[in-house]
Amino acid sequence: MASNRAKALRRIVRENWYMLLVSLAVALAVEALNHRTLAKLGVFLAEHPWMFLLNVWIIFNTFLFAEIFRRRRGVRWVIGILWVVLGIVNYIVQRTRVLPLTTRDVLLIPDGMRMITVYFTWYEIVGIFGGGALLIAGLVLLVVKSRPRGPFNRLASVSAFCVVTALTLVAGKVSVEFGSIDWEKTSLVDAYQNYGFAYGFTYTFADFGITRPSDYSEEMVEEIADDIADEDAPLVVEPEATAEPEEPTVLTPNVVFVQLESFFNVHDLLEAEYSQNPIPVFSDLMENWPSGQLKVPSVGGGTANTEFEVLSGMNLDYFGAGEFPYNTILRDTACETICFNLKPLGYTATAIHNYTGTFYGRNTVYAQLGFDCFVPQEYMNGLTYNALGWARDSVLTGEIVKAMRATEGQDFVFAVTVQSHGKYPSTPVEGLDGIDVLSCPETVDAVMLKNFVNELSEVDAFLGELIEEMEDWDEPVVLVLYGDHLPALGIEDEDLRTGDMYQTSYVIWNNFGLDMQGGDLQAFQLSAYVLGQLGIENGVLNRFHQTFGPDCEEEDYITFLRVLEYDMLYGEHVIYEGDAPYEPTDLRLGCEPIVCEYYTYDPATATISVYGENFTTYSDILVDGQRRNAVFADETRLIARANGVTEDSEVCVGQFTREGEELGRTGLGKMREISP
Fold first, then answer.
1. 3-state SS class at 182
2. Do 604 and 389 contact (CB within 8 A), yes or no?
């Protein structure tokens, strides 16, 4: 028996050694796509030879999986083709959003489908789906038509695959231990460049959440609590409690954060000159108000991750590579945020975004973050759109004002813009020609940059309108403006004055003469930094960041932050004395309720008219649960065709996304009259 197994293993070695050469060829092809130029591929091979060999071994490991099947040759072809296809997809993804392809992108497919018409033409879309269908059919046919091999020892094949897999895991662990790999100190873009695609992609498959820190313990968390404790202010204030601040040093103005899509100081782009300043308002703010550079977790995309860091005070470096907490832990776990921290002081938290409410699952995730109200584009009127189909940001001024008027107490408003979202066309766009690009770095397409800065100019004008409104507001307001990430324009570190693609800019403005400070920050420090200057200390991470300060270089700062994040989301909640105090809010959509008051029906024309309040172009009539395609007459009336409507019919109004997902519906209306 033992001799048979030995013969089987020798046969496996004899029949697979040349697959190492095939793996080498596949790895070279995939890395050429990953690095995009032969020069960069050469740098990778010269500076990271061990990592390249590890990538070759990983690909060989997957080829060895084919040994389990009788139609081994067909399975080998499928594996090799899939690696090349993944390399091509990664190449396309990097060109459209900068961030590389990860296994986490599977969770973003529904969101990506909403944007597919922005990044690709219909011909390209048909080609992508048609090509995908042909590829799948071809792979299946390849396996079915491949010639099966003769008798083989499947147990030996499984054993060989498991042994090689174990060696792969050991090699990865050794690389981490000896410092060849350090995900937490390396951006996702740099990780794929330094560690290779095969390693990066497979690593993201198993890496999610926050790994339990080796030094995590009840004693350490209690030590951290002691370090940041204040006997005059409890570390955690119950969110339901509402009290006026007792300390005169605590200020409670309205706080408005505006996260600006792909916005950055375009004057930081070296060798770039424009016919006029694209961002005069923001430039003036940076010169005359507290400002600085903001280190964000994303580049080219990943808006939700910058949101998460700013709102929660958590560092995304400790989460899985390429992970979006909005799609993982926050689906069913409430998280301490600035929203929860401000509630005991009487604040109402409102989120506003002029894009669809279901994107990144915001219509459910925002409840986990402590928002009381969310206003997506489906609950807005007055929307206008740019050439790419993104809603213009000018609508947000009125929505922010409306949110602040809707409450009696103080407001925390978190607005997210969308107008300057990519993809930026490489051909001239009518209407985006007011500002010319006179020069720019070689890596950047001048036409794309021109389209971008002209959109940015309109966003900058919106900021001017917003500040004008806030200047005349009869309550104190602190306004924080910052970019979520750099745009996907081919910009590289060496093209920037800052030397870092992960840095945007921020400004802090107020309308009541408060002397505030700026300085360079991490995105996860921003909210604590602002609240600290108002004397607001509620919340664990808020107090933690304020205690250590944004310039802290102590190693304990980073160590303790990771321990706290793990304890708060995945651990034993020691910092909360064993019981997390946060529960998801009863999130309502829209600042003003949409009301269905009554309806009339004309049987002669089979037309129903529904009357009420605050209807939008995304409102539709529902009759006995069936959606009717309504015509938006105005904010008080919708009209649709329907048969057999009576006073016993159940008639209401629902809000629907463009894709047909229902966000909410009103109560039932009553029939007012039946036309003769």
1. coil
2. no
